[in-house]
Design a protein that fits this description.
Structural class: alpha+beta
Number of domains: 1
Strand order of the largest sheet: 2-3-9-5-7
Largest sheet: 5 strands, antiparallel
CATH class: Mainly Beta
Helix content: 10-25%
Order of helices and strands: HEEEEEEEEE
Number of strands: 9
Shape: rod-shaped
Strand content: 35-45%
Distance between the termini: 73 Å
């Protein structure tokens, strides 16, 4: 008789486990959510000002901002001797509605080995807030110098400056 009770107990446990499995299957579902996010803001950092602030043994240097304000052309036509230096003060501004984190400055055309061009690396997290808010511009210097140890004759240089930036999260 005891053996019979174990059979009923095992059968009852089997029914309970089976019921739990069926119940779980009935009430569980997989939900897939898909969609597309759109933004209505603008993402635009541009050069707002550029000027020659220092010319040492140099003359005629200019800074020209392109019409779309995304490219800056620096012209150093007359470096007179080794050690000649030109310093440009550059201001960039976020004119968009989305915050921008500054990453790097890109130079093209600065391939003269006797000319040293120096510029800052942006501190991590340098963010330009959207237009109209405090802190939406950043000013830095670019220095062009004829290397002191150069023995080649006169130098001139024209190069372009652009910016790398990404959306501030």
């Amino acid at each position: 008789m005891e053996n019979k009770n174990y059979r009923y107990l095992i059968a009852a446990l089997f029914v309970v486990v089976l019921s739990l499995g069926v119940g779980y299957a009935i009430f569980s579902e997989t939900i897939n959510i898909t969609g597309t996010a759109e933004t209505t803001g603008t993402f635009d950092v541009e050069f707002s000002a550029a000027e020659v602030t220092t010319e040492i043994d140099a003359s005629g240097s200019t800074a020209i901002i392109s019409a779309d304000k995304n490219l800056l052309t620096l012209d150093v036509p007359d470096l007179q001797r080794p050690g000649s230096t030109v310093v440009y003060e550059i201001t960039i501004k976020n004119v968009g509605t989305i915050g921008a984190e500054l990453i790097n400055i890109n130079l093209t055309g600065d391939d003269d080995p006797d000319i040293v061009v120096t510029y800052p690396t942006f501190p991590v997290g340098t963010v330009l807030t959207p237009s109209g808010l405090a802190g939406d511009s950043y000013t830095f210097d670019i220095t062009v110098e004829w290397a002191n140890d150069s023995d080649s004759p006169g130098h001139d240089l024209v190069f372009d400056v652009s910016l790398d930036y990404q959306q501030d999260y």
